[in-house]
Design goal:
Layout (H helix, E strand, L loop, with lengths): L1 E4 L5 H12 L4 E5 L12 E3 L6 H6 L9 E6 L8 H13 L4 E5 L11 H11 L3 E7 L12 H9 L1 E4 L11 H13 L7 E4 L7 H12 L4 E4 L2 H10 L4 H15 L9 H6 L6 H7 L6
Parallel strand pairs: 1-2, 1-4, 2-3, 4-5, 5-6, 6-8, 7-9
Helix pairs in contact: 1-6, 3-4, 7-11, 8-9
Length: 288
């Protein structure tokens, strides 16, 4: 068995790769870059969802590797993502791939927009194994190098949102990766979707309070309107359409869209999900 990880330079793939390497499971990391990172310890292939010429190469295992049997599907950063993703699923299936695990989002149901269309397609095929992971908002959105929230914490002692006093169960990428590892490698396919949530409901005010405690300085939550947040995202270089979509998702938090808890991470991995305090304590140095 060899596993292909698309979205090779994203948040989830690097964590999954570490788990696969530790378990000695063969895998290939795929990304759009035609110049694989020389610093990466992992086997890498070039892959572009929008370039069908890369499909065959990315599914060709390196010497001594078994054929690729399983694929981690990370959606491309485009609005109409379902057509290229389903096209690749069909291509990969013809090449012998038996299992697909899709990264979706907590608020996107099967048959909904974007990843929801791919979710529905995977579930409808019948002849393949699949799982769909639907995580809520990542804790790492506060800590990854180019994230706006990280820069605002480091440079302004502020976090920004349009979520008002809404609550959400931030989840760690490490926990998402642990669930992904199981769905990718378990002998019996899960053939279902999992909504992945952290262990506690928090407002952005509470996030700011936790960061203040960990960092020893006051971090303030700046409450924006949906329009103000969309403009902030657009000013950072995000396409207007994407900025408006993300701002709308943020606003939905104030309406209770993410106000829920479950035990899925514990159920699948037999370990409790990480708390935000534990995450912030570990990441303290990233905020200066």
């Amino acid at each position: 068995m060899t596993i292909l990880l698309t979205g090779g330079r994203g948040k989830t793939a690097s964590h999954i790769a570490s788990l696969l390497q530790a378990a000695k499971v063969p895998f290939i990391v795929a990304s759009r870059s035609s110049n694989p990172s020389s610093s990466s310890p992992y086997c890498q292939n070039c892959f572009d969802w929008l370039d069908e010429k890369t499909y065959g190469d990315v599914l060709t295992p390196k010497e001594s590797m078994q054929p690729i049997s399983t694929v981690w599907l990370v959606p491309p950063p485009i609005f109409d993502l379902a057509p290229p993703m389903t096209k690749f699923v069909d291509f990969a299936s013809r090449k012998g791939v038996k299992r697909f695990v899709l990264l979706s989002a907590s608020t996107i149901e099967k048959g909904g927009p974007a990843m929801g269309q791919v979710h529905e397609y995977l579930a409808s095929l019948g002849g393949i194994e699949y799982a769909v992971l639907r995580p809520t908002w990542f804790m790492e959105n506060f800590s990854y190098p180019q994230e706006l929230q990280r820069l605002a914490i480091k440079n302004e002692n502020k976090i920004y949102s349009a979520a008002g006093d809404g609550k959400l169960p931030f989840v760690s990428v490490a926990d998402i990766a642990r669930v992904a590892f199981r769905t990718l490698t378990d002998e019996k396919s899960h053939n279902t979707d999992y909504v992945l949530l952290g262990p506690e409901l928090m407002t952005y005010d509470q996030v700011a309070e936790t960061l203040s405690t960990v960092l020893g300085r006051t971090i303030t939550h700046v409450k924006l309107t949906e329009e103000e947040l969309a403009k902030r995202l657009e000013n950072s270089g995000m396409p207007a359409e994407d900025a408006e979509m993300l701002a709308g998702m943020d606003t939905s938090i104030s309406d209770g869209a993410e106000d829920r808890l479950n035990n899925v991470v514990k159920h699948v991995t037999d370990a409790d999900p990480r708390t935000f305090l534990d995450f912030a304590t570990q990441q303290k140095a990233t905020w200066g």
